[in-house]
Design goal:
heterodimer, A: about 110 residues, mainly alpha, B: about 120 residues
C-alpha cells in the first residue's frame, strides 16, 4: 500500500513538473516548484517506509526546511531584485542599499 | 486491533493519494494563478496530512512518529506562508485574477473585433 502512495506522489510530481515547464507566468512556475518540493518531502518519507528504512525521515525534514527557505528567497529576489533589500527600503537603488547609510562618504 | 490500525492507515494513504492526484490535475487544468494556488493548497493540506497520518499509524509510538509529527507541523506552518508570499508577490507585480463577469460581454462583442 506504500507503493500506491508512492506512485500517486510520482504522478503528482510529474504533473507539477509539467506545469512548471508550461506555466505562462513566472509565479506559476514558482508555485509548481514549491509543490514539487513538498511532494519530494512526502515521497522521501513514503520511500523510507517502503524500503524498510524509516531513517530517511531526517532527510525529509531537512528537505522541507530547504524548500521553504528556497521558495521565500526566490520570491524575494524576484520581487525586490536583490536579496539584501527589505520591504521598507526603496528598490530603485540596488547598489547603494547594501551598505549602511552611516558608512558612506569614503569615496 | 493491529489489523484495524493497518486498515485505517491504508485508507488514509489511499485517501491522501486521491487528494494528491486531484490537486495535481487542478494545478494543471485551472485557468489562473490564484485558482492554481487553491489547487496546490489541497495537496499541501489534505494530501500531505492524510499520507503523514497514515505513516504515523504505521510507525506506532516511536521516534519515527515524532519525526513525522515534526514534518507535518513544519509543512502546516510553512505552506500558508509560502502561498501568501507567492500571492503577494504576484499581486504586487501586476498579475490580476481572471474575472468571470466580463465573459458574456466578450461573447457578444466578439464580432466588433476589439482586442
Amino acid at each position: 500500500m506504500f507503493a500506491t502512495a508512492a506512485v500517486a506522489i510520482l504522478v503528482t510530481m510529474s504533473l507539477a513538473l509539467l506545469r512548471a515547464f508550461m506555466g505562462p507566468t513566472l509565479y506559476d512556475r514558482i508555485l509548481a516548484v514549491n509543490m514539487f518540493g513538498t511532494k519530494t518531502v512526502l515521497i522521501i518519507a513514503v520511500l523510507g517506509f517502503l524500503m524498510g528504512r524509516p531513517d530517511f525521515l531526517d532527510i525529509a525534514l531537512v528537505y522541507a526546511l530547504i524548500n521553504f527557505i528556497g521558495v521565500i528567497a526566490l520570491l524575494k529576489y524576484f520581487k525586490y531584485g536583490n536579496l539584501a533589500i527589505g520591504p521598507g527600503e526603496s528598490s530603485g537603488k540596488p547598489t547603494s542599499a547594501s551598505t549602511p547609510p552611516g558608512d558612506g562618504g569614503d569615496t | 486491533m493491529a489489523q484495524f490500525i493497518d486498515i485505517l492507515s491504508w485508507l488514509m494513504l489511499v485517501g491522501g493519494s486521491f487528494f494528491l492526484v486531484i490537486g495535481a490535475i487542478g494545478v494543471l487544468r485551472l485557468p489562473d494563478l490564484y485558482t492554481r494556488s487553491h489547487a496546490a493548497g489541497i495537496t499541501d493540506t489534505m494530501g500531505a496530512m492524510l499520507i503523514l497520518f497514515g505513516l504515523m499509524l504505521q510507525g506506532g509510538f516511536t521516534l519515527i512518529t515524532a519525526k513525522l509529527v515534526m514534518i507535518l507541523l513544519f509543512l502546516l506552518f510553512t505552506s500558508p506562508a509560502a502561498s501568501h508570499a507567492l500571492g503577494n508577490a504576484a499581486w504586487s507585480s501586476g498579475l490580476r485574477p481572471k474575472m468571470a463577469e466580463k465573459a458574456p460581454v466578450d461573447q457578444n462583442a466578439e464580432t466588433d473585433g476589439k482586442e
